[in-house]
Write a structure and sequence with these properties.
Blueprint lengths: L3 E4 L2 E4 L10 H5 L2 E9 L2 E2 L2 H14 L8 H15 L4 E8 L17 E8 L2 H10 L1 E7 L14 H12 L4 E5 L5 E4 L3 E5 L5 E3 L10 H12 L4 E3 L4 H5 L3 E6 L3 E8 L2 E2 L7 H17 L2
Parallel strand pairs: 7-8, 7-14, 11-12
Antiparallel strand pairs: 1-2, 1-6, 3-4, 3-5, 5-6, 8-9, 10-11, 10-13, 13-14, 14-15
Helix pairs in contact: 6-8
The protein binds N-(5'-phosphopyridoxyl)-D-alanine (PDD).
The site of N-(5'-phosphopyridoxyl)-D-alanine has 15 residues, from helix 6 and strand 13.
């Protein structure tokens, strides 16, 4: 059996799964999404991603397409049908299909829902973590509601491409005050010169990362010092360590910022330890 996708109530072969040309997600980016890491075929941080999905939808007045319970079943069925053990589950919900008009459709339409599942080569991602990755910085140019996980990702797309073109893995947005907000698809962290963990606070215009939040529980349990306080690219370049978090990256050491090595230019011991602890916890709590 090849890959399958879920589209609006049915499973279809991945290559043949389609949405309508007037889907508002396609035409207007009027849609939100979530990504779950999969460990042994189970959804990691399941609850946190559902809560954020519900919030993203409610901020845009898009109804939940089905109950959380039903959604869990469909997601798990999509994972099962794709026979993926280690990977990612992607869920997108748009406002639905309607003749193109910027304003919401006058008559209510049913939201569209799509789920895809992809495999991740964990040996390759572990090798990447053992080596560490580079980031480049780029001016923050996104809208003011980055707390909503919408598919309107063009600034993130361009930032990520800038990183790839520079041979880096991630791009960090830097706001007009000179502080790092977050990555194109991850949250940004450092271990500062005093050994304190630092990441941007959620009053800033960032996505409230679920991996970030779970890692904060790990950090509290370990009794480590944490400051939700902004840092600049220079702070990162002179930090002991840096790393990023996200459903795709998990906890991934950063070894250079704009070509300048961070610390000794190798993955830091704390970042590697937090990666191990996060993965242990994610595996233990996956559903
Ligand atoms: N990205 N910030 C941004 C802009 C993101 O797109 C993401 C996740 C994160 C981390 O959030 P979380 O820990 O909840 O995954 C932070 C997903 C993985 C993506 O776009 O594929």
């Amino acid at each position: 059996m090849g890959r399958v996708a879920y589209v609006n109530g049915r499973f279809a072969r991945h290559g043949e799964a389609m949405v309508h040309i007037e889907d508002r997600g396609y035409q207007l980016s009027d849609a939100v999404y979530e990504v779950w890491a999969l460990f042994d075929g189970r959804l990691s941080d399941a609850e946190g991603h559902f809560v954020r999905l519900e919030r993203s939808l409610s901020e845009l007045s898009i109804p939940m397409p089905m109950s959380r319970r039903a959604l869990t079943l469909v997601l798990k069925e999509a994972v099962r049908r794709n026979r993926v053990r280690e990977g990612l589950a992607y869920l997108q919900v748009s406002r639905g299909v309607a003749p193109r008009d910027h304003a919401f459709p006058k008559a209510p339409v049913a939201p569209s829902m799509v789920i895809t599942v992809s495999a991740v080569d964990r040996a390759a991602t572990e090798a990447r973590a053992a080596k560490g990755v580079g980031v480049v910085t780029t001016p923050e140019n996104r809208w003011g509601r980055c707390d909503i996980k919408t598919v309107a990702l063009l600034p993130n797309v361009l930032a990520k491409q800038k990183a790839r073109a520079a041979g880096a893995y991630e791009a960090w947005f830097v706001d007009e005050l000179g502080f790092v907000t977050e990555g194109a698809s991850s949250n940004a962290w450092i271990v500062d010169r005093d050994g304190r963990l630092r990441t941007r606070d959620t009053n800033a215009n960032i996505l409230r990362g679920i991996t970030r939040r779970t890692l904060m529980e790990v950090i509290a349990e370990e009794g480590l010092a944490l400051d939700e306080r902004p840092f600049t690219p220079d702070d990162a370049k002179t930090a002991r360590e840096a790393f990023i978090t996200g459903a795709g990256s998990l906890v991934l050491p950063v070894v250079s910022v704009d070509g300048t090595p961070v610390g000794e230019g190798r993955p830091g011991p704390l970042a590697l330890k937090l990666r191990r602890l996060y993965i242990e916890r994610a595996k233990a709590t996956a559903v």
